[in-house]
């Protein structure tokens, strides 16, 4: 029976894309809905998002940000104010044209992002240098009418947070942009155990309307890149068209400097594709909705074993997120497979002989390793074990990433590498969009970022001219 | 200067409606937006909503519910499945007709509520009695294209939570409906200090598509009623049209019984209108984003006083939500008025002589009372004081409500009472919608609820026939 459960998941190596969908549906993270391109986030998937929100929100507040809520709707005229911005988003806007039985006099966009509506308010609220900085974040839904969609990675509607700040100086805005990028890196690496590369986007890949876009790029276990979070220095682009000015201490009227930054439910996709295996999800302990699944194995002593299982459940439930699986209609084997598929970091097995020996068996989801642990040591051991699993999962992903970064010698080698191998290309780049485009056209790989690393580049991998920087290129989600 | 701040708020007694708007704008709870009927919830207002979410979410989880997320969009065909439901909501639906540059083949509603989209998923997920009950809640935004709007009370878009549950039996569904009504009552009375009357809605006032609607009704300080939360027993209305069936233990295929229940950001409106006064907001300590505002009064000893103020801030900041107002550009008097306007329950004043005496002055927002408290007693005293303020604000509101419930002797007396007095009418009612409508037409008061109280009614206040129940009638928001 347990084998049947697993058979419903396509092996990762055979078809990564189908494996991804199978895992999402079978583990009940999400489901397709009757609305084109929109998904339902089911309770188990939403519990992951709630944890993500909790960890991020704490970090946002610790860095001085406050939450607010701006309207879902943006009048067309407002969306059109910043030229690059509207060009970037107009093709994927959902338009409201009727309210009740009446046609609206002006079309209204369902927000694809909120810079314009927020700027219209900042222009009203900000008067003096005393009002700055403005540090606001919003948790909400946004809509982008994408042609092809995939659960968590690209859906018509998704959930995210968007930070929007206004500052007195360019330096302060740049500091904020980088501060929030670092908040994202720390969260994604520490809590999601997903290693990333921090860097700057190229001109062609930056946010529509930004001066500079910074990104954290993760490597999925098929070698493709996933942009896990972005932080934009907006400069004064929006500030000028929305007339956001303040009276400075020197008596001068000046435009503010702005930033915006966001991460979304696509991080759940990153989590799945970084850690999952043929048996399903693997969720790092810090973010796991259930950290320990207790599976009693009754043998012929149901009451004897169940009593103990309940005692252990009650003993650890305050400190850990734990579930006691006392369902009668499933075999222990089926339960093992189900909790593995759901990615629960630790399975706690307990049978009649364990009860007699005053021990339990802990099974690690990350390595499959089994440990017999004495009851009196359980709380201590669990703590250490969960820490170790968190660390090990990060190390596994970090090693995988390091092993799949290639440094080709020339353009021909770059093309060959991208054909034959999965992973990222690290190469010298002259900075021209011509060379960037040529790579994209001939390989399908895009420029992911110019890393915040040692920058002592030689010659551009494409044109051979003096390179400006090192850059990562990869196929991506 | 402090007087100028207050002058910007219209006295409550002169124009309650204008007072309400003034308080919202001046205390920076919310602001008007460039989108018709939509408001911006500013950080101070949103912090109240975050607290509400926290207290409610804990209660939902403690009663076994899990959060999930369903699409913002509902295809027109889905919305139209339940006849009463679509008739109730169609006049206020915002319609999406275009995605990007393309016209959609079917119009899509921006959700006014999510019964239909959720039922379409439940019909897929629920197969067996083992799948029941399904206990899901969603925090989200909804849109109702209302003709006339007012911040928090009635806006085109608002934030809320909607619980949607499915059960095996009618009894279980009724139990759940009443359980969640009690959760709402407990939250609104204990945390918001807003007293309510629990009861059942009449046929004409119930939710479109429900079997029965239960409500908690609060009395605002102008005497009008505000529906603070509703819980609906949906019976099998949706279950039948959406074909939500399960195989029961007896081998029979049966339709589930459903409930839905919700509260929204209109609770912030209830909070303002229950507790506010001519000086602005009064927020009960449990829900207050800031519980204590420290205002140092320097005299000629700025450093001396500020040092101590910071020590006190650091001493209590872990246990209380506290703000140290060390702004140099405002006088203490101005600060007093501002924190009063913002409804902060306790102001902590400290001047040079207080520092010498090792004491601080605590000023209650609810009564204006001042207390000198020794530094070493501060943490203890604050605890008691905040509890006492919470209790006192509830008692004040409860007394106001009790004093403004009228029991007229006949229909003429009822009409006279509603003309001359503010508050609720408590009267016998025969249960006919004719009598209900007559009251509405002649007085503007609607039937608020049939209370869960002693029911030993005499004759109907309108027609004089034997009454079926006691009922509350009032003008409402």
Structure notes:
2 copies of one chain form a homodimer. Chain A is α+β, with helices and mostly antiparallel strands and 477 residues long. Chain A has 3 domains: 8-275, 2-Layer Sandwich (BirA Bifunctional Protein, domain 2); 292-385, Anticodon-binding domain (Rossmann fold, 3-Layer(aba) Sandwich), CATH 3.40.50; 405-474, 2-Layer Sandwich (Translation Initiation Factor IF3), CATH 3.30.110. Chain A has helices at residues 2-7, 16-26, 43-62, 76-79, 83-89, 115-125, 170-190, 237-241, 266-275, 302-316, 332-341, 352-356, 378-403, 411-420, 433-443; strands spanning 30-32, 39-41, 66-67, 73-75, 94-99, 102-110, 134-143, 157-167, 196-200, 212-219, 225-235, 245-247, 253-255, 257-264, 292-296, 322-324, 346-350, 359-364, 370-374, 405-406, 424-429, 446-451, 469-474. Chain A has an 11-stranded mixed sheet, sandwiched between helices. The longest helix of chain A has 26 residues, at 378-403. The model of chain A has no long low-confidence stretch (mean pLDDT 96). Chains A and B meet through strand 2, helix 3, strand 3, strand 4 and strand 5 of A and strand 2, helix 3, strand 3, strand 4 and strand 5 of B. Strand 5 (94-99) of chain A pairs antiparallel with strand 5 (94-99) of chain B, so a sheet runs across the interface.
């Amino acid at each position: 029976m347990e084998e049947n459960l697993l058979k419903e998941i396509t092996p990762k190596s055979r078809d990564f894309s189908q494996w991804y969908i199978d895992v999402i549906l079978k583990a009940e993270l999400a489901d397709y809905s009757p609305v084109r391109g929109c998904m339902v986030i089911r309770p188990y998937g939403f519990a992951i998002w709630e944890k993500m929100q909790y960890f991020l929100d704490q970090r946002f507040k610790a860095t001085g940000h406050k939450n607010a809520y701006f309207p879902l709707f943006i009048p067309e005229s407002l969306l059109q104010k910043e030229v690059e911005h509207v060009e970037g988003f107009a093709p994927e806007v959902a338009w409201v044209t009727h309210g009740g039985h009446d046609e609206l006099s002006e079309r209204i966009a369902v927000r694809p992002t909120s810079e314009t509506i927020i700027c219209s308010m900042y222009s009203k609220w900000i008067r003096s240098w005393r009002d700055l900085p403005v540090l606001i974040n919003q948790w909400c839904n946004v809509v982008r009418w994408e042609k092809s969609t995939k659960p968590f990675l690209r859906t018509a509607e998704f959930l995210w947070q968007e930070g929007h700040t206004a500052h007195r100086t360019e330096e302060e805005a740049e500091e904020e942009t980088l501060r929030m990028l670092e908040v994202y890196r720390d969260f994604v690496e520490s809590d999601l155990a997903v290693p990333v590369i921090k860097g700057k986007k190229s001109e062609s890949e930056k946010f529509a309307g930004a001066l500079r876009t910074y990104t954290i790029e993760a490597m999925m276990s098929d070698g493709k890149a996933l942009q896990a979070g972005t932080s934009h220095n907006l400069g004064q682009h929006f500030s000028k068209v929305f007339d956001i000015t303040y009276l400075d201490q020197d008596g001068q009227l000046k435009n503010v400097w702005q930033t915006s930054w966001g991460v979304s439910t696509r991080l759940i996709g990153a989590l799945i594709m970084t850690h999952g295996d043929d048996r399903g999800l693997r969720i790092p302990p810090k973010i796991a909705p259930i950290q320990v699944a207790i599976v009693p194995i009754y043998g012929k002593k149901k009451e004897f074993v169940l009593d103990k299982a309940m005692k252990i459940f009650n003993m650890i439930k305050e400190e850990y997120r734990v579930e006691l699986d006392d369902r009668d209609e499933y075999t222990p084997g089926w339960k093992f497979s189900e909790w593995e598929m759901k990615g629960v970091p630790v399975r706690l097995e307990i049978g009649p002989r364990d009860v007699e020996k005053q021990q339990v068996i802990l099974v690690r989801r990350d390595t499959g390793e089994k440990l017999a642990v004495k009851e009196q040591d359980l709380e201590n051991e669990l703590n250490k074990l969960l820490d170790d699993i968190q660390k090990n999962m990060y190390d596994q992903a970090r090693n995988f990433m390091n092993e799949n970064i290639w440094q080709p010698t020339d353009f021909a080698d770059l093309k060959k590498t991208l054909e034959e191998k999965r992973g990222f290309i690290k190469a010298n780049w002259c900075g021209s969009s011509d060379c960037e485009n040529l790579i994209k056209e001939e390989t399908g790989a895009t420029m992911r970022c110019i890393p915040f690393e040692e920058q002592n580049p030689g010659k551009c991998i494409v044109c051979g001219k003096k390179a400006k920087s090192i850059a990562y290129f990869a196929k991506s989600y």
